[in-house]
Amino acid sequence: MRTKLVLLALFLLFMVLAGAFSLYRRGSEKTDSSYLASFPASSLSYSTNPVDEYSELAKSLIEGLKEGDHQKTSALYNDKMKEVVTSEKEDAAWIALSSQYGQFKKISGYARIDDPAFHFVFVKSDFEKATITFRVIFGEDKRIAGFFIDSVA
């Protein structure tokens, strides 16, 4: 029963985040990034260190979530994300991840792909029981426009 509640909480949080990204994308007339939204992270080449400014910002997001530092994470979000992502939602999501997959251990890899309107950073994060790849999506303003769990292995 607890596992079902954890999965439901994660699903609801990431639906909210997906909605924020969708609203942000509607404002972009430069490109249709839908092909990148479904890009398989498993086919990317990962670096063990942040490769650029976007990777550093994605690292800051993961660290902020781990530390429960909503001020740190909120400063990284664009206006639409700030509207929908509350500290309570962040805390609930991180608690759900930790209860399902164990404590966060480290970030083990970074990869990035770009298109004219968005920068996608994939962050492999090692937990005690699994490796979770997060997809962090940045707009041209270097603010986070979307955040998803890409895969769990």
Detailed description of the structure:
- The protein is an alpha+beta fold and 153 residues long.
- The chain has a single domain, classed as Nuclear Transport Factor 2, Chain: A (Roll), CATH 3.10.450.590.
- The protein is built from six helices and four strands, in the order ααααααββββ.
- A four-stranded antiparallel beta sheet has the order 1-2-3-4.
- It is globular and about 35 Å long.
- The chain starts with a helix and ends with a strand.
Descriptive tags:
single chain; Nuclear Transport Factor 2, Chain: A; 4-stranded antiparallel β-sheet; globular
Summed up, what is this model?
This protein is of the alpha+beta class. It has six helices and four strands, in the order ααααααββββ. Strands 1-2-3-4 form a four-stranded antiparallel beta sheet.
**Which class best fits the helix and strand makeup?**
alpha+beta
What ranges have pLDDT less than 50 throughout 5 or more consecutive residues?
Answer: 5-9, 15-36
User: Going across the major beta sheet, what is the strand order?
Assistant: 1-2-3-4
The overall number of domains is 1
CATH first level: Alpha Beta
